[in-house]
Design a protein that fits this description.
Length: about 80
């Protein structure tokens, strides 16, 4: 499987991949095997495992994007930053 840019995959697909990987890990699949199967770095799999350990499957849900289109600064504040 070739590497896929995760930013171009829908939130639902990413969440499904994470949940599937964690279930396989719980069933005994190694981190290296998961990394190979999902074409991602092992550190990414470890992050998913840590998130799962801290908050269960709910913690694997996609988080809001920090630089979303819903700006938190007023136009005046953005002008002042320039």
């Amino acid at each position: 499987m070739s590497r896929v840019d995760g930013r171009k995959v829908s939130h639902e697909v990413r969440e499904t991949i994470r949940a599937e990987a964690i279930q396989k890990w719980l069933d005994g699949t190694s981190v290296k095997a998961l990394s190979d199967e999902y074409s991602t770095d092992r550190s990414c799999i470890y992050r998913w495992i840590n998130r799962y350990n801290e908050g269960g499957m709910e913690a694997l849900r996609t988080r809001p994007i920090a630089h979303s289109k819903n700006a938190k600064l007023s136009p005046e504040q953005r002008h002042d930053l320039k």
